[in-house]
Design a protein that fits this description.
heterodimer; A: alpha/beta; Peroxisomal Thiolase, Chain A, domain 1; 2 domains; 9-stranded mixed sheet; two-stranded antiparallel ribbon; 14 helices; 11 strands; 17% strand; B: mainly beta; 5-stranded mixed β-barrel; 0% helix
Chain lengths: 395, 145
């Protein structure tokens, strides 16, 4: 367990604003610094998550954002790990602090997303699995979400009504969140009228693509201790694991899994391992969680995550959901922010947005969506090409 | 008649009997990779040499399915008159792996059952002035579940 602290968080509201991603990054970074009571001059390292759809500046997001904030001479890093990019950037900053190379680091993720389905990068590239899946199958992200959802229905008897209940819950959670893009409260009837995109999933079961930015100020424990008027929380664990061979679970963007023929199966499937490694580092378990932010790319995937993070056993997520345990006021509210259902996905910002929500909950600053007496929060997601991301924060 | 050419070269064969996907097999540990993608074995427990080209099983069991109701973005050749189509994930017993494919034209996804036998076929994906461009798909076989 590390003693690196989070001293400040900041966001630019999610939406479809159509501006340059660096504009959002600067708003979020300045908000996080103000929240920490610091200025750019205090920052000794900047770590950013890259964006793939904004040209060269997006591939060097660390320096793009450093330049946008005003060059201050500090070293930067630029990480890409798809949806996990924010956590990988956070891990880089934490390592820098743990190594004694910095006391204060700024972590930023920002994106400007295109309309509609994400497509691969342009060009004729049959060696790129992301290109192949679109060219040969037209396998969009929702196609995979549909496969996972149908699998859950067939294995565990999940129904479209269960998936709709996730949407209803998250829409209620996010309704009062000023950073959420969608704040409409959905009813089951409204969800049933939404068009099917990838059977069994409807448009409102699937997360949108959004613009937005999130930033986190990390500091050493010694530095945080000197800021007596602030309310730091502790980064108890960061897990950025990759799969263990053979990964026989279907994973984006691949059109086939590994073969299980030549090696024993891994100790646990990939998504379970992402959480397991974080729990091990934190010395905590699922029973310790006050709340969790999980990556609800689809409503059905939120149910998978309940099991992956150990809130319940395989096939028990629907019962857990209907018990109210994961709703605000329940034992362990999941996606108190409203989740991707209310935000849509701003890829390099999303893992950091999850952390911002956990910090806000642990400080008791979440207003109408406050989880009572929150002391331990977990944020988890998975980026395509085998990127895990899990952050546990405690106070 | 226009020639039939695969949308992407080297991923399946129709040369010998029923169509089959073409992968790579490690001569030492037997692991199979599809697409072959690289020349070497990716099993970290194995130091096997160059992969042998190998046909994959042509039948498997249905692991899951869905459909695409809206036209995927390029490079998918959706054309001007997009028709929704199904997508299947099929588990191959011998290879112990799951392989995706479109569902064969005319498949009624409302009748599919988990675990039912699926068979590899090759069908046109799109047609232009020069050729009929083909891809592999999964066709529902007998219901065994």
């Amino acid at each position: 367990m590390s003693d690196v602290q989070i001293l400040g968080v900041g966001m630019h509201p999610w939406g479809k604003w159509g501006r340059n991603f660096a504009e959002y990054a600067v708003v979020a970074a300045r908000a996080a610094l103000a929240d920490a009571g610091l200025t750019l001059g205090d920052v000794q390292f900047l770590a950013a998550g890259n964006t793939m759809r904004n040209g060269y500046p997006g591939y060097v997001a660390g320096s793009t954002i450093a330049q946008a904030l005003g060059w201050s001479g500090i070293p930067v890093s630029s990480s890409y790990a798809a949806c996990a990019s924010g956590a990988v950037a956070l891990d880089a900053a934490r390592a820098r602090i743990e190594a004694g190379k910095a006391d204060v680091a700024l972590v930023v993720g920002a994106d400007t997303a295109p309309k509609g389905f994400f497509g691969p990068l342009p060009g004729d590239r049959p060696e790129d699995p992301d290109w192949l899946r679109f060219r040969l199958l037209g396998a969009t992200n929702p196609t995979y979400f549909g496969l996972y959802a149908r699998r859950r229905m067939e294995r565990f008897g999940a129904t479209a009504k269960d998936f709709a209940a996730v949407k209803v819950k998250n829409s209620r959670h996010g309704a009062s969140n000023p950073n959420a893009r969608y704040r409409k409260v959905f009813t089951e009837d409204e969800i049933a009228e939404s068009p099917v995109v990838a059977e069994p999933l409807r448009l409102v079961d699937i997360c949108a693509t959004s613009d937005g930015a999130a930033a986190v100020v990390l500091t050493s424990a010694e530095f945080a201790a000197r800021q007596s008027d602030r309310r730091p929380v502790t980064v108890a664990a960061v897990s950025t694991v990759t799969p263990t061979y053979p990964n026989t679970d279907l994973d984006l963007p691949d059109i086939a899994t590994d073969s299980g023929v030549g090696a024993p199966p891994p100790a646990r499937p990939f998504r379970d391992a992402i959480a397991h490694v974080a729990y091990e580092e934190a010395g905590l378990g699922p029973e310790d969680l006050s709340c969790a932010e999980v990556y609800d790319l689809s409503t059905a995937l939120e149910l998978d995550w309940y099991e992956n993070i150990g809130l319940c056993g395989p096939g028990e997520a629907e019962a857990l959901l209907h018990s109210g345990a994961t709703t605000l006021g329940g034992r362990v509210p999941v996606n108190p922010s409203g989740g991707l259902a209310c935000f849509g996905e701003a890829i390099p910002a999303q893992a950091l947005a999850q952390v911002c929500e956990i910090v806000t909950q642990l400080r008791g600053d979440a207003g109408e969506r406050q989880v009572e007496d929150a002391t331990v929060g977990l944020a988890i997601n998975q980026g395509l090409f085998g990127h895990g991301s899990c952050v546990i924060v405690t106070r | 008649m226009k020639p039939r050419v695969p949308v992407v070269d080297g991923m399946f064969t129709e040369d010998a009997g029923p169509p089959a996907l073409l992968g790579g097999r490690c001569p030492r540990c037997g692991s199979v990779f599809f697409p072959k993608q690289w020349s070497f074995c990716r099993n970290p427990h194995c130091d096997g040499g160059p992969l042998d080209d190998t046909p994959l099983s042509t039948r498997g069991r249905l692991w899951s399915w869905t459909d695409n109701r809206y036209a995927p973005p390029p490079p998918y050749p959706a054309g001007d008159s997009f028709e929704p189509y199904g997508v299947a994930a099929v588990e191959l017993d011998a290879e112990q792996m799951i392989v995706l494919g479109q569902l064969a034209r005319g498949t009624d996804i409302g009748r599919l059952q988990l675990g039912q036998e699926m068979e590899l076929v090759v069908e046109p994906l799109f047609e232009d002035d020069d050729a009929v461009h083909t891809v592999w798909k999964w066709r529902a076989g007998s219901v065994t579940g």
